[in-house]
Amino acid sequence: MRKLLLVGCAALVLGGSAAAVSSQTPRNETFRMLELFGDVVGIVEQAYVVPVDNKKLIEAALAGMMTALDPHSNYLPPSNYSELRERTEGQYSGVGLTISADGGMVKVISPMDDSPAAKAGVQAGDVISSIEGQNAAGLTVSQVSEKLRGAVGTSVKVTFLRDGSDPLEVVLTREVIKVQSVTGRVEGDFGYLRVSTFNENTGRELNEAIAKIKAEKPGVKGYVLDLRNNGGGLLNAAIDVSDAFLERGEIVSQRGRKPEQIQRYSAKPGDITGGLPLVVLVNYGSASASEIVAGALKDHQRATIVGLTSFGKGSVQTVIPLRQGQDGALSITTARYYTPSGASIQKIGIEPDLEVARSEAEARIVSRSSFIYSEAAYATALDASIGAERKGPHTPREAPGDKFDKEKDYQLQRALDVLRVGGDLSKLPAAPEGVVVTEPGSTPKPDAAPAADEPKEE
């Protein structure tokens, strides 16, 4: 059985084991370096000032080797591998964070909806500084994940660093994270669909949410698909969601190291909404599987994209069990993925058709440090194989000012405005009072930085 996982766009292989892989390094040199590694382990075992745990030493070495490749390649000890499988099945115990390595630190890609982390105010882009008072610098993703896990009801104190703000120290109480990946409701004449992650249940839950909206509002006129702060999940689930709104055409392709390593995924006939207007909401916390959906719907001109440029995670990892998972697994980058137009979003992201910040704080992030909240910030991130670069710091076209009601979700408000004009942005009504509108190409001014509360997830 094979599952393609995109928590960072990874392919999860639940059966089998690691196979021999050819290397460009001469075999004799490889063996010599392995002998050197064994010599070093032996020296550490005999000479270090206190006794060492060889298992921990070797696991750390494996983790270091994998993270040296790129931010998303990793060694997963058995417990972390079990957690990964639990998460894709829609339930696990923890604090609800999607994380990734970044230059010796671990950064939050996104908090899960209604998780302990989200309720505590943790946001995409936050860097984990310490756990239980111990410096987290230099820890691998697996090591951080292990420290954040624990029995339901137990607590863990975590300090986060946030650009331009004081450190955030929170005590998170671990919960069973039962991930309902899709929720829906009626918003006036329209349906609102929130997809928080992509797991085994997402396709079914999307169909159920749309059916419920149709029953409650028989004359529904369009839908908002909210992918903000959705850090990824199963590739098959992303394909199911894209397919639900498309009649035909390619959804995504993935390409490996060799030219012949190309796999394409296409839509089947049938649009569950009957072609009604569709708006997709994204922001810098929308990564991987979210970007596959947004990219497919944008390239086929099936949806209008509203919000902020997405994270820019466009590589595929294959998770390979070691000795049937008894020794954990390797998560290794094996391919890049491309939108139907052939574009790679690696380090670039999906740019919105209508750029709108949700709050003053989001506007500040884009205008001062947009790269920090993206794949482009990672020193070891793969380059995009073709084309464009991510747009640098700039002032978002629309952003709520200090007079705007902070309780309102301005991005959602504008998404509904787009639906009311059938997706024709030329007919979009002017931004309401209290919203700052900036013409494209404007550069941020030092005295224009807003100082409002940070954005909050729904």
The CATH superfamily label of the largest domain reads: 2-enoyl-CoA Hydratase, Chain A, domain 1
Profile the largest sheet.
Answer: 8 strands, mixed
Number of helices: 10
Assign an overall shape.
Answer: globular
Low-confidence stretches: 7-22, 444-458
Distance between the termini: 35 Å
Supply the helix-strand structural class. Answer: alpha+beta
Helix content: 25-40%
CATH architecture of the largest domain: Alpha-Beta Complex
- Total DSSP E strands: 24
Whole-number count of domains: 2
- CATH top level of the largest domain? Alpha Beta
**Binned strand content:** 25-35%
| Cα-based radius of gyration, to the nearest Å | 22 Å
Task: Using the coordinates shown, work out and report the CATH topology of the largest domain.
Answer: 2-enoyl-CoA Hydratase, Chain A, domain 1
Taking all residues together, what is the mean pLDDT?
86
Task: Explain what you see.
The protein is an alpha+beta fold. It folds into two domains: 92-178, Roll (Pdz3 Domain), CATH 2.30.42; 182-448, 2-enoyl-CoA Hydratase, Chain A, domain 1 (Alpha-Beta Complex), CATH 3.90.226.10. 25% of the residues lie in helices and 26% in strands. Strands 1, 2, 3, 15, 16, 17, 20 and 21 form an eight-stranded mixed sheet that branches. Strands 5, 6, 7, 8, 9 and 10 form a six-stranded antiparallel sheet that branches. A six-stranded mixed sheet has the order 12-13-14-18-19-22, sandwiched between helices. Helix 6 (202-216) links the parallel strand 13 and strand 14 (223-226). Helix 6 runs parallel beside helix 7 (235-245).
Topology:
Elements: E1 2-7, E2 10-13, H1 27-47, H2 54-67, E3 74-76, H3 78-88, E4 91-94, E5 97-102, E6 105-111, H4 116-119, E7 127-131, E8 134-135, H5 141-148, E9 155-161, E10 168-173, E11 175-178, E12 182-187, E13 190-195, H6 202-216, E14 223-226, E15 232-234, H7 235-245, E16 250-255, E17 262-266, E18 278-282, H8 289-299, E19 304-307, E20 315-321, E21 329-338, E22 354-355, H9 360-369, E23 398-400, H10 410-420, E24 435-437
Parallel strand pairs: 2-20, 13-14, 14-18, 18-19, 19-22
Antiparallel strand pairs: 1-2, 1-15, 3-21, 4-11, 5-6, 6-7, 7-8, 7-9, 9-10, 12-13, 16-17, 16-21, 20-21, 23-24
Helix pairs in contact: 6-7, 7-8
